[in-house]
Structures are given as C-alpha cells and as structure tokens.
Amino acid sequence: MTSPQSDPAPQPPQPPQGHVHGHTHSHGPAAPVSKHLRKVIAAVVIPFATAVVVGLIAFWPGGAPDHERTGVGFDRQTQDGKVVQVVKVDCADVNAAQVPPTGDTSTPSGREAVNEQEGECAKATVEVTSGDDKGRTFVEVVQPDAPRQLREGQGVVVAYAPDAPRDLQYSVTDVNRKIPMTLLAAIFALAVIAVGRLRGVMALVALAVSFGVLTLFILPAILQGSNPLVVAVIGASAIMLAALYMCHGVTARTSVAVVGTLISLLLIGLLGSLFIGWASLSGNTDDNTGLIHGLYPDIDMSGLLLAGIIIGSLGVLDDVTVTQTSAVWELHQADPQMGWRGLYRAGIRIGRDHIASVVNTLVLAYAGAALPLLLLFSIAQSSVGTVANSELVAEEIVRTLVGSIGLVASVPVTTVLAALVVSADRPGAGTSSSTAAAPARTGRGRRRKA
User: Whole-model pTM?
Assistant: First the structure.
C-alpha cells in the first residue's frame, strides 16, 4: 500500500489534453491569432476606423436645418388628442356631398357620395391634450366607409393648421399607437436579453448606436446638402464598426468580418451608382420623395436612393460575413492542419446554403413591402414588362438585385479572407489558438504543455 504522498493525482476518464481541447471547442470565442497577424489586421482596420471618425467629424451636421411648415403630408404641426365623445348621426345631416344626378354608383366617387348621404356617420368630439391649445375641443365627422373608425377614450394624433379658420384648424390624422409600440419594443428587448444574455444586451446597445448614427448624422447631413452617397458610406461604416465589435468583441475574427463587409459595401456602391444612372432612376417617385425635393431642392434624390440601398444592405451583410468568418474559424479549430484551400472549400459549402436563404429573404421582403403597388398593377392587367419598366418597380428591382449581388459576393470574399488569415497563424508565433484558451477552460490550475 502506497503512502498518500506517492499516490498520483486523480485523472478524468479522458486524458487532460483531449478534455481541454474538446472543452475549448464547445465554449467561448476563438482564441487570438499570432501577434504578427494581429499587427497586419490592425494595419488595415485602424486606418479605416480613423478615416470613418474623420468623416464623421468633417460631415457632422449639427442638427437638421429649419424650414417653414408646408402643412402637407408629414410636414405638419401635430399634437396629441383624445376622443371624449362619439355620437351616431345621419350622414345626410352632416355631409354636404350630393349623390350624382344620374344615381350612378358604379364609380368609387359615386358609391362614396351615396354612403355619405344614406349611411350612419360618427360625430366625434376630440380634445387636444398637448401644446398651447391643450383642453380645446373640436368635432370630427367619420364616414361609415372610412378605414379608421374612432371610439370614445381613444388616443389620437391631431394636425394643426394655423392659417385655417378657427373651426377647421384641428383635424384627426392618425391613431396614437405609443403604448402598444412601446410594449412591443419592451417584449423584444426582454426576449433578446433572455436568450442572448450579455451578447443580447450588447446587441441592443449596438442597435441604439445604429439609430443614433442614422438620426443624428445621416439624415441631418443629407438635409444639410452633403453628398448622400458619401454620408451613407461614412454612416454605414460607423454602424458596422460599432455593431460588429460591440456584439462580437475586438478580435481578429471580427476584424476579418469588418473587412469583408467593407469590400462588399464598396461593390454595392459601385454597382448601384452604375445602374441607377444607366436606368435613369430619379429617386423621386412618390408623394414623400416629392415633398422632400420640394422642401430641399438641392438634395440629390438619385444619390439618396443609392444611400438607401447601401444602408439597407448593411444589416444582412453583417450577418453573412460574421457567419462565414465564424465557420472558417471553427473549421480551423476542428482541424488545425487544414490549409487555406481546404478551409475555403469547406467554408464556401456552408456559404452556399446561407446565400440561398438570404437572397430569397431579401426578394420576399422587398416584394412584401411593395405588395399594394404590385396589386394595383395586377388590377390594371399590366404585363410583366410594363410593371418592371415603371420607375416605382424598377427602383425596387435595382435595390434588390444590387443588394443581392453584394451579398453573394460577400461569401467568397469573406471566406477566402478568413481562410488566409487563420491558416497563416502558426503556434509559437505569439499566442496560439490552442495554448491561449486552454488555461481558462480547465478549472484545475493545470496548464497544457505547448
């Protein structure tokens, strides 16, 4: 019987090295690459980040420029209101519209006139609950076929027209949706934090930063007359740097995703600029863009369209590049002897599945947004060529295809970058991927031999 001093330490069922190695793969981020590679990556990313900061400073707008309210569309003074009473009345008593002399109800205007004379309308008393006229009431008549019906106690948004006669200065423009929208946002935040934990918190912070860059920099800078394309590239780059590094950490893996995203964004910008000009897309296709052009005639509307394509593509690009980079890193950890060509081939197979779903998602997202417009073309029995040739639809086609080309290109670009970077790392050239993560994962104070 041996003494306690001579007994060997208890061993786990598997050798310590195998246990540590497998544990490293199951938990935690990839270990840092060699010191030399970190310097190479920093030499690329740091100048880019510096250029973004300089661009933010140079183009910082200091707020949106003031303008005289037109009272048209969104450019109206609005206040909060509340429906305090709703009374049903005969439409003939409150409407001045007349039924067509012929009695023709086959047209929308004819049917509307008949409803306004023969139906039962709602006479709502609305109280203004904010602003200088708080406590003032006015009457709103709601037609029986109106898409939005009012009910007592309902919160509403009212528009104020100071130049109109006193009895017509206020009108209901929309329903107040602040409470349900705030509740939905809270549920979303809780779900993200519950599932993502610390990463979920950082994702929400990155989301707030993205909205901050959009509302404090991109939009005011464009309104001040700065080039929309330059502003969009600077703003999108700032959002990309903040979102990726905050959510995924300041690592070589994240830096490769940043470079891959940047290259793809540049490709999207070049293709978008080429085809927007070639297809003669003005970017001024509806009432909202027309109002913007009327208020700020110096804004380049086609440049604004291109800026929208770049910003709209950024979110999906981040997802693709991070996924591809992570896949290559994990493949390298699973087989450290695999060369960059093998890593690329394995990573691109994963990327093909990702691209197939992402492109379909983009097309369906744009089609869903334009569904009412497509329905109108269907009602008019327009041909596919006629629909695609109209500027409204052509804009969406260019937006979808240019963004999709950038997404498709991001897969091989990011995969080859990640394969080259991670395969160039060699143990002994700094902190290796095996030695860096092992001590933190054992929990026994034992260090694995290099």
Answer: 0.70
